[in-house]
Each structure stands twice: as structure tokens, then as C-alpha cells.
Design brief:
Residues 1-24 are annotated as: Disordered. 34% of the residues lie in helices and 21% in strands. The radius of gyration is 27 Å and the shape is elongated. It has helices at residues 16-19, 31-51, 60-78, 84-99, 105-109, 142-153, 203-208, 214-225, 240-247, 291-298, 315-324, 339-352, 359-369, 438-445, and strands at 115-119, 124-128, 131-134, 166-170, 176-180, 190-194, 230-234, 257-261, 273-277, 305-308, 331-335, 372-378, 384-396, 399-412, 418-424. The chain is built from 14 helices and 15 strands. It is α/β, with parallel strands linked by helices and 450 residues long. The protein has a 9-stranded mixed beta sheet with strand order 9-8-10-11-7-12-13-14-15, sandwiched between helices. Strands 3-2-1-6-5-4 form a 6-stranded antiparallel beta sheet, with no helix packed on it.
């Protein structure tokens, strides 16, 4: 609840334009509802302050009854022409304003919603199943939106104001919030909230959703159990984190896994996980701990495997060094549009990090460290699928050589429905780490595994 309550605005009946909402539009999507909710919220806060009510000490059921009673008193005092159902709608919204997150409350608690994108107080979009669509929820104005944002980030020790117009924070439920406000955002506050499943996808679930087929399932299983070093490459919201979570299921339970991230998003289904998260510095930059520092420190923590949530900076050098010095089985994600782009990006990041050796030595170090690149993408339908599995085989003529083991292809069946298939391109990985699994991989390629 806010520290300061603004005075109750001048009493005003809904305008004719507000009262004559377009037919078929739900009450909670009309301007009348927004005006009434804003005034009722001020009325409620003033009453709480005048009576010195300790809302925080009340049970949710007590708060609900209190809000309903105050809503009825507000409607009676203001003589607002609403029916019982509309008054109940306002009371429910007020309760979310008081102890929840206002218009975002339902969206944050909906398990099917993956992303919430706010482009100003009137424009809210959500992503579900990889498909983006507009949501009916909205805010009364920018002040309303900012009030809810500050309520979300206040327990996290973050600020959002003129001196700090950008914020990136991890939510208590594991999600991630990014917000940017005026003067940097021209058209009002811009907010992106990425939600994560409480129970991450398992490999079997991804297989059932058509993210890959059984031969690729068997290969991914062998790659992880064989302690291959894996990079998961893809674009924004392509499913990199979900796939990385799923692959961790294959890690033997007697191994110690250390995860390193800017904002903790991974939720590995493994009994021995040490989670590390970078830290921003103070106003003068002091106290900052970046990913590179954490990767360097993790080498002293007796890791069996190191998992980097996303490689995007100087930490690439420490990661390559770790993969080349006995920490096999490490994994990471990276933003890239193809396996070849992924290799170019590794070279670029290493150069930015101050790599002192020659171009040839850098490429040999990359080829020695990385065993496989798994490329994942989001299709136009919203589904996430593995586009290719590529093995890094060495350096030839000063170029990192690779071979594509599987390639995704879409096709149209007799019923005009889009189907997926993965073409095996000479299923013979050279990696010696897969020797114990040759028979399993051969059986999977013949369709003998369940």
C-alpha cells in the first residue's frame, strides 16, 4: 500500500460517453469501469488511512469482505448507476489493487501465459503457446501502471524513477521483469515480463510436443551422459532455457552442477545444483559481480559440470578454458541464428574480451571445447522445435569444421496439415565421448527405442 494517499478527486458522475459503452463490451473493459475503479481506489485508501486500518494483519477473506462493504458504501455515496454484478466486478478489482498486482494479477497467475508485454497503460499483450495476442486488461493511466510496477519491484530492492528509468529484476516466482519508463520510453512505461513454468519441461514432454523426434532424443541423452560440451543456440523466446532445463534431466545424480546466470531462470531437475547469479554494482559501480567473475570462481567450487545460462560477454574465455581443462559435460545457451553464426559469435565475444592469441589458436580452442551445437527455433505457429544438431569436428584450413547430423524440415500431409520431420544426414558422430552409446544411437535411428 502507498505511503502517501492523494486527496479524493472532485465527485463526478460517469459521462454520457462512458455510460454509452459499445454494445457487447464487458463492463471491466469500459472507460466507466476505469473511472469508477480509480475513484473507488482513492476512496478506499482514504478510509484505510482515516481509520488506521492494518490491512497487512488481515486474512484474505477478511480483506475481501471489507473491500466489498467499502465498495457498496462508495457506490451509495456517489450515487453511481451500476448493478450488483458490476459492483462485484469493481470490488474484485479493488482487492487486487489492494493486496495483489492490479490488472496484472490474473495474468501473473495464469500458468498458460509465457510473456506479458505492456506498451503503455492501454496496450497489454500476452504470449501463450508461442503466439502473441492482445489481452483485455489495461490500466487507468501511467500513474496506475507505475504504482503496480513499483509494488512488484519494491521487495526486490529495486527502484524505478527518473534517476533509475530502467530496471531488470528476477521475480520471487522465478520470472523476469524488465521495465523502462520516461524519458527513455517515449510512449509511456514499457514492460516485459517473462514467466517460467513451475515444473520445467522434461525431455519426454518436449518429445510429446514435437520439439524433436526419437533419434534426436537418443542423441541428446547420449550427449549429456557422455559428458559432451553442448551449446544451445537460438533467437529470443525460441526455447533455449526450456531445452537446457530438460537436458539437465539426463545428468547423473551423483554429479555436482553449478549454474551461472545474469538473472536466475534455470530450474534444473537435479538433486545437486549450486545456483549463482550476477550482481549489479552500486551508483558508483562498486560491488558489481559479473558472469565472468562467477565462472572464474566456480572453477574453485569442485564442479562436475558448469551450466552458463547465456554466453554474451567476456565470460566466453573462462567458459572455453573450463571446457578445455577437465570440465566436460558443460552446457550453455547463446543468441545466434545458425550453428555457423554461433561460432562467429563466440569468436567475436572472445575478441571483445581481449583474447591475445592468433585467430587460428582461438578457433582451435573453440573447436576443442565445443562438441555439439543444438539449434532451436520458434516456428510461425508458435511451436518450438530443434532445427539442427551439429557436431564440431575440428579445424581445417583455419576454419572450424562441422557436420550437421539432423536437420528439421516441414511438409504438408494429405490433409493439408503442416508436419515436421528430421532428416538424418549420415548419422555418424565422430565424438569419442559417444563410443559407449553407439548401439543405442543405431537402434534409435532404426526406430527400435520406445
Amino acid at each position: 500500500m502507498e505511503d502517501k494517499v492523494t486527496p479524493l478527486p472532485q465527485r463526478m458522475a460517469p459521462s454520457a460517453a462512458e455510460a454509452d459503452a459499445p454494445p457487447g463490451v464487458p463492463f471491466d473493459q469500459t472507460e466507466q469501469f476505469q473511472s469508477m475503479l480509480s475513484a473507488a481506489h482513492e476512496y478506499l485508501l482514504n478510509h484505510i488511512e482515516d481509520e488506521r486500518v492494518d490491512i497487512d494483519a488481515w486474512a484474505p477473506s477478511t480483506i475481501a469482505r471489507f473491500v466489498q462493504a467499502q465498495t457498496a458504501a462508495f457506490v451509495k455515496e456517489w450515487k453511481i448507476p451500476v448493478n450488483a454484478q458490476e459492483m462485484e466486478t469493481v470490488a474484485i478489482a479493488l482487492q487486487k489493487e489492494l493486496i495483489g498486482f492490479g490488472p496484472l494479477d490474473d495474468l501473473l497467475h495464469d500458468p498458460e501465459i509465457e510473456d506479458i508485454l505492456i506498451n503503455g497503460y492501454k496496450d497489454v499483450h500476452v504470449s501463450s503457446g508461442g503466439v502473441l495476442q492482445r489481452a483485455p486488461q489495461r490500466f487507468s493511466d501511467d500513474r496506475h501502471l507505475l504504482r503496480i510496477l513499483r509494488r512488484i519491484i519494491a521487495p526486490l530492492g529495486r527502484r524505478l524513477d527518473d534517476s533509475n528509468p530502467m530496471v531488470d529484476a528476477r521475480l520471487p516466482n522465478g520470472g523476469r521483469l524488465n521495465a523502462i519508463i520516461s524519458p527513455l520510453a517515449v510512449d509511456g512505461p514499457m514492460v516485459s515480463i517473462r514467466k517460467f513454468r513451475k515444473d520445467p519441461f522434461t525431455p519426454d514432454e518436449l518429445l510429446g510436443r514435437g520439439a524433436f523426434d526419437k533419434p534426436i532424443y537418443a542423441l541428446l541423452n547420449a550427449m549429456v551422459r557422455g559428458r559432451c560440451n553442448i551449446l544451445i543456440s537460438g533467437g529470443t523466446s525460441s526455447g533455449k532455457t526450456s531445452l537446457l532445463n530438460a537436458l539437465a534431466t539426463f545428468i547423473p545424480h551423483n554429479e555436482r552442477v553449478i549454474t551461472i546466470e545474469d538473472t536466475a531462470e534455470l530450474s534444473l531437475n537435479h538433486p545437486h545444483v549450486v545456483r549463482l547469479e550476477s550482481r549489479l554494482g552500486g551508483f558508483d559501480g562498486s560491488g558489481a559481480v559479473n558472469i565472468r567473475d562467477l565462472v572464474r570462481n566456480s572453477l574453485r567450487m569442485r564442479p562436475d559440470r558448469i551450466v552458463v545460462g547465456e554466453v554474451r560477454g567476456a565470460e566466453v574465455l573462462e567458459m572455453l578454458q573450463a571446457m578445455n581443462t577437465g570440465h566436460d559435460g558443460s552446457m550453455a545457451t547463446i543468441h545466434a541464428n545458425s550453428p555457423r553464426d554461433c561460432l562467429y559469435r563466440l569468436e567475436m565475444l572472445a575478441g571483445f574480451a581481449g583474447f591475445q592469441g592468433s585467430e587460428e589458436s582461438l578457433r582451435r580452442q573453440i573447436a576443442s571445447a565445443i562438441d555439439f551445437i543444438v539449434q532451436i527455433s520458434r516456428l510461425g505457429s508458435g511451436r518450438r522445435v530443434i532445427m539442427s544438431v551439429t557436431e564440431i569436428t575440428g579445424v581445417s584450413d583455419n576454419i572450424i569444421s562441422s557436420q550437421e547430423l539432423f536437420k528439421h524440415e516441414s511438409w504438408i500431409d494429405n490433409d493439408s496439415r503442416e508436419r515436421d520431420r528430421w532428416l538424418g544426414l549420415g548419422f555418424h558422430p565422430h565424438c569419442h565421448k559417444l563410443e559407449p552409446f553407439r548401439m543405442e544411437l543405431r537402434q534409435a535411428s532404426l526406430g527400435e527405442l520406445p
